[in-house]
Amino acid sequence: MPAHVEVFIIGAGPAGLTAAYCLTKQTSSVAVIEKDPDYVGGISRTVRHKDFLFDVGGHRFFSKAKEIVELWHEILPDDLIDRPRLSRIYYRGKFYSYPLNAFEALINLGMVRSAACMLSYAWAKAFPIEDPRSFHDWVRNQFGERLFSIFFKTYTEKVWGLSCDEISADWAAQRIKGLDLGVAVGNALRRALNVRTAARKPAGSIVKTLIESFEYPRKGPGMMWEAAARKIRQRGGNILMGRELASLAYDPHRKIWCVEVSTIEGAHESFTANHIISSAPIPELMQKITPRPISYLHARELRYRDFMTVALMVDKPALFADNWIYIHDPAVKVGRVQNFSSWSPEMVPPGKSCLGLEYFCFEGDALWNSSDRELIALAKSEIGRVGLIRPEDVADACVVRQPKAYPVYDDGYRQNVAMIRLDLEGSYPTLHLVGRNGMHKYNNQDHAMMTAMLAARNILAGQRIYNLWDVNEDAEYHEAGVSGVQQALRSERLVPQKIRQAAS
Question: What is the per-residue pLDDT across 251-281, written as a single tens digit (0 to 9) for each?
């Protein structure tokens, strides 16, 4: 006899665990399955290697949403610390502060190149590309061709493995809309002249990429999701590790889902459920639904970018102050370097450091299929080439692979997702897609949590009051919104205005 639950949740990342956490406040009839046999948190987990802890990608805890900030503090009331934000860009052998330091950038680029950048910016503003369709078009319109080629092109193409002409303008509009060159330069000049203006600015005018601090769990983001999992279990919810969805079938007469699950040991388990919440990648989910939805043809077209961290342990303290450094140099494959002791001193043993070199790839390509030994040798060579440490300073190392880290915004993604939504929402009224991979939306942790929180509210209300797809539709909620606890606590609600209006 299959076990029955009110809500069956696929994936124990931030979205899946937020949904379970919110639901178990009112019902214990919740089950969560997670592929990983050891870690909850998905891409927001914290990995341990001996006495070192490291984050898979770097996850700041900031949001303009009051309810998300309050939820973080509710789950982890005593273990969030405030950390200074410091990052730089490495380009052509020089480091640039990020956000921009105008005088430093002027010196590093030189007068001729700086003047060319300003002229290129003026030209783009005077003669913009009408109806920009690609990332290249959008950024060129905002910053000019020269700044695009210096500060956007190389890093973006490393991350996505695509030409900037193949990446949808939606990606730029979502991630960097609101970061205006004039605002960035103005902020840089004020910082350089030590002019303090934040107190005079309304909370909503501060650009997210320009924030100077963020919250972070003492021992990494996994600490948050391990605490959430404990509280879910304490309330009677069930979290089943090392489980993968085998099949999913909807009975429209009984209005019930029949779920088959496989374990890493090869056993099979059966469940029935009134509702399904999925944070799994859309193609993986739809492949398991029987009969297979007609829009599976569109799901097969959705693409993902994969990711690896090579963690290098060093027997030296405080290598540099940055939390992370963007590597814009095309001569090396590494895209970003995390400095985990600057995220939290408790991530590394006293007197030691740990750097995470991040490589973006496609699952199955030559880089992904390289052995750990080859990847560690590559990382040691490239960290020396960039000049952050000497290769011989590395005392230990390990590799973590993360498949399907980033949903790709190519030319066809929007139409494919629209057809999938039309099909699933019409056929399966009790199937709820949440989170980054579950909705094929490159959203931040707080947005993934927001979709899950609203899905839980819809289920508890017995109707779809909130449209989850409106979350993060406004780019303000991504890289151009207010962040930090103090600003978030000034906000009234989690839900964007147009969602509130639909619910009222």
Answer: 999 999 999 999 999 999 999 999 999 999 9
What length does the chain have? Answer: 504
State the Cα–Cα distance between residues 423 and 14, nearest whole angstrom. Answer: 26
Distances from the Cα of 476 to the Cα of 43, 485, 487, angstroms: 23, 17, 14
**Answer CATH for 3-44+63-77+219-301+411-471+494-503 from 3.40.1190.10, 3.40.50.620, 3.50.50.60, 2.60.40.1120:** 3.50.50.60
Which is higher by pLDDT, 307 or 491?
307
The whole-angstrom separation of Cα 88 and Cα 97 is 4
Question: 416 vs 192, which has greater pLDDT?
Answer: 416
Asked if 285 contacts 36 with a C-beta cutoff of 8 angstroms, the reply is no
Which pair of tokens denotes residue 266?
A: 């090869």
Which bin fits 301, alpha (ψ -120 to 50), beta or left (φ > 0)?
alpha
3-state secondary structure 197-266: CHHHCCHHHCCHHHCCEEEEECCCCHHHHHHHHHHHHHCCCEEEECEEEEEEEEECCCCEEEEEEEECCC
The per-residue pLDDT for range 69-106, each reduced to its tens digit, is 999 999 999 999 999 999 999 988 889 888 766 677 77
Contact 353, 393 (CB under 8 A): no
Which class is 304-407 in CATH?
alpha beta
Query: Any idea where the domains of the chain sit in the sequence?
Result: 3-44+63-77+219-301+411-471+494-503, 87-210, 304-407
**Which residues, in sequence order, are CB contacts of 202 under 8 Å at separation 6+?**
none
Confidence (pLDDT) at 111: 86
Within 8 A by CB and 6+ apart from 413, the residues are 168, 170, 301, 302, 303, 407, 440
At 117-167, the pLDDT tens digits run: 889 989 999 999 999 999 999 999 988 999 888 888 998 999 999 999 999
Helix (H) or strand (E) holding 84: strand 80-84
pTM (2 d.p.) = 0.87
Contact call for residues 44 and 17 (beta carbons, < 8 A): no
As to burial, measured by CB atoms within 10 angstroms (0-12 exposed, 13-18 middle, 19+ buried), residue 270 is middle
pLDDT for res 185: 54
Following DSSP, what letter does each residue of 405-442 receive, concatenated?
EEE--BTTHHHHHHHHHHHHHHH-TTEEE-HHHHHT--
pLDDT at 117: 87
Which residues, 6+ apart, have CB-to-CB distance to 207 below 8 Å? 178, 179, 183, 184, 187, 479, 480
Average pLDDT over every residue of 37-42: 96
Place 180 in a pLDDT band, splitting at 50, 70 and 90. Answer: low
pLDDT at residue 215 greater than cutoff 90: yes
Work out the end-to-end distance of the chain between its first and last CA atoms, rounded to an integer number of angstroms. Answer: 42
CA gap 171, 160 in Å, rounded: 11
